[in-house]
């Protein structure tokens, strides 16, 4: 195995002038229904995982035992008979050659109600995109029957792609979010889920009063905790600074404190958003400073994007224990800058990976990993271009990540971001068994790649990460329970396949159509968006006029 790259930060050496706001979950411990509690799973085979950043470890021909959802034993193959006797088993399941287990993917940033328009609407910048596509789509989830159907498709699609844990944004209205939680619970996924809050600068029919928003956010939290399902955690979700008043943000922070909830939002995503926040809050130096003042930076906070965070911002988030969800595909479409993973990690930041459906046009965490690698190589190319020369220096190479590092982000990094590092992300005794069974034997047109004579396990596994897709994922496990095998979702009474049915096509026809942004909103979007030359001049002028003598960094 290759040596781990020495870029992991020495966290202790980071100045501790600010104490992390430590939140602890109120959720109960693992509770599986009767039969599943007794269930013992013993599988002999090869397991890949990335406990160390930059290193791919293999547990070759081991016997892994899962009881009540947790890994209780990892033994060498030659101890098979002993294990069999210890657990009173008639036989031990053996994986076939070319089949491997790996940890389930952890997607740290998904907008559940945006799944329906994933792969479309890539023609406008963020602020306009929200108004034109996103708000109408999210608003339409008030039709609860449609919500039930679409959320069922969403959770199935994500499970099919190997996402065993997702951090979801719901929509504004309370009821459809309860449907989302019910769908996740029923289909067996692990998730952190939030009701979106916004009390300003949204569409007239997609906005809430501050008091109503706070009441509904708390009701959502108590509903989710009331499920007593350790797989599902509630999340406080101020959409982003432009759509939330300080009163709302402070109130939400109090709810998060009261229940020990996760928090999610968007931070320093693109020029349009950042310039908008500077205009609205000229007294603060950055998005991070605003969130700090509102009490929203905690050890259970995940902020999406962060491409325009300064090093001071990153250090501050790191001190707070706040994570960033790196969403490379979305950043290419809606963002204006690169997020530098290695640099952020070296400053002590927790970093996970996200699809950001539908800003990111793919629900696949395999795609997110590949995009993270490509993003890192774009940074290298950019540095070379700026140098004007033909010499690649070590400094230019610093930001490049490999598939192993991307896989770490998609598993361990995500687990750290969601405060689940003791629970999932690797195969270790004491952790829950959230895993994917990868089959690399699907040659020809039945699979996405071919395997050639002489290729070993490591090469086959690397091919899967770089070329594979959901066809290779023949079993998906969450908390030791197989939730999907082949085309079947085993916890779903109806066993509906992810393939569209006639019923689905009715729904597709009735999905909302995009609306044209109103003139006033467009003005704001343009003023704040740097991609419009004339508009960015406006922003500069406005910012100059309103700039206070000193900005509060609040750190
Ligand atoms: N900022 C505020 N809302 C959103 C959203 O839905 N997607 C993305 N990418 N950024 C946002
Ligand atoms: Fe997002």
From TrEMBL:
SUPFAM superfamilies: Composite domain of metallo-dependent hydrolases, Metallo-dependent hydrolases. Gene3D superfamilies: Metal-dependent hydrolases (3.20.20.140), Urease, subunit C, domain 1 (2.30.40.10). Catalyzes the hydrolytic deamination of guanine, producing xanthine and ammonia. It catalyses: guanine + H2O + H(+) = xanthine + NH4(+). Keywords: Hydrolase, Metal-binding, Zinc. InterPro entries: Amidohydro-rel, Guanine_deaminase, Metal-dep_hydrolase_composite, Metal_Hydrolase, Metallo-dep_hydrolases. The keyword Glycoprotein does not apply. It comes from the Eukaryota. Its cofactor is Zn(2+). Binds 1 zinc ion per subunit. It comes from Volvox africanus. One of its GO terms (cellular component) is cytosol. Belongs to the metallo-dependent hydrolases superfamily. ATZ/TRZ family. Residues 532-555 are annotated as: Disordered. This is Guanine deaminase. Its EC number is 3.5.4.3. It is an enzyme of class 3 (hydrolase). The keyword Hydrolase applies. GO terms for molecular function: guanine deaminase activity; zinc ion binding. GO terms for biological process: guanine catabolic process. Pfam families: Amidohydro_1 (PF01979). Pathway: Purine metabolism; guanine degradation; xanthine from guanine: step 1/1.
